[in-house]
Each structure stands twice: as structure tokens, then as C-alpha cells.
Amino acid sequence: MVLAVAGQAAMVALQVMVQEDAAGAGSWMMRLILLAPTLFGMYMVWRLFLNPYISFGQDRLRVNNIFTHYLVPYHLITALEGRTALTLVVSGYGRLPVAALNAAPLTGKAKRDTVAQELLRRRDAAVPRAGHGFEKRSTLGLPEWLGPVTSLACFLVGGLASALG
After folding, report:
1. Of the residues 14, 15, 38, 105, which has the maximum number of CB atoms within 10 A of its CB?
2. Mean pLDDT, the chain, whole residue set
3. Confidence of residue 19 (pLDDT cuts 50, 70, 90)
4. Which long-range contacts link 73-81 to residues 24+ away (Cβ below 8 Å)?
């Protein structure tokens, strides 16, 4: 996570330098061409490294993978698999990988084992409740409109600054 935040900070610094250089030349089209890949890169760093997480709820586990979100009732978890990564075996839904606990060296097996122990403890104490079933949602981003709106706003600001300058 630290590397992902540092990578995003480096992208922002690089983009500021490019924007300042292009602003001095007076070419807003150059700024637009250089801005689009940087925004996409920042978005992908966020999606791949900063967004995946798990959180424990009262009755369900929330697994926020890269492009899929799951709400898994504890009582449906039948087994935990994986030596370095964590994979849930969910009754009636198959295997569910947990992207937040991957095999990355910085994540470490200790974190995976701690989460697995907590999941087993909650599973053993779980009581099925009505209306708290398994849910799966696929998504391209959180929120979906953020990427295009941010890109459009930056393009408009770049064009306005070029027109006024």
C-alpha cells in the first residue's frame, strides 16, 4: 500500500511538471495528450493496490476485490484455503479469492493467518439471519462516474487555462 501511494504521488508530481512545461509553451492539446494516460495510471494503481480490502461486519464479511464486491455470511464459509493467499470456500457459491490478502511479500503470511483465525472464530459463532444472504456485485470502479468526470474536468481546466493565458 505504501508503494502504491508513493507511486501515485510520483505520478502527480510528474504530471504537474509536464503541465507546467506545456503551459509555458501554450499548448493545451499537449497537456490533454499527456494528462489522459496519467489519470488512467493513477486510477489503475488505486484499483489494483489501494481499493481491495476485507472488512468484518456483524453478520457478514465484506470482500472488496478489484472488480467484484462480495457480502458473505459467516455461516456459509465452509473452508479456508491457500498457503500464502486466502481463498474462501463458500457453500453453494464455490471458491472466492480475497485480493486484499494476496501473496505479495509486504502483505505477509502472518496477516493472512490472522484474518483466517478471525474468520474461523466468527464462522463458529455465526447465526443465520433472514435477509442477510450472499451478495455479489460487479463493478468497474467506485464510484463509476468518478473517472470520466475527473478526466473531463481536467481537460476543461486545461483548455480554459490555455484560452485565458
Report:
1. 15
2. 75
3. low
4. 73/126, 73/128, 73/129, 73/132, 73/133, 73/134, 74/119, 74/122, 74/123, 74/125, 74/126, 75/123, 75/126, 75/127, 75/128, 76/134, 77/119, 77/123, 80/116, 80/119, 80/120
Supply φ then ψ for residue 38, to 5 degrees.
Answer: -70, -45
Interatomic CA distance for residues 141 and 93, integer angstroms: 23
Give me the sheet containing 60-64, strands edge to edge.
Answer: 53-56, 60-64, 68-73, 135-138
pTM tops 0.90: no
**Integer Cα distance of 147 and 129 in angstroms:** 37
User: What stretches of 42-146 adopt beta strand conformation (E)?
Assistant: 53-56, 60-64, 68-73, 77-81, 86-90, 94-98, 135-138
Its sign, for the CA torsion 150, 151, 157, 160, is negative
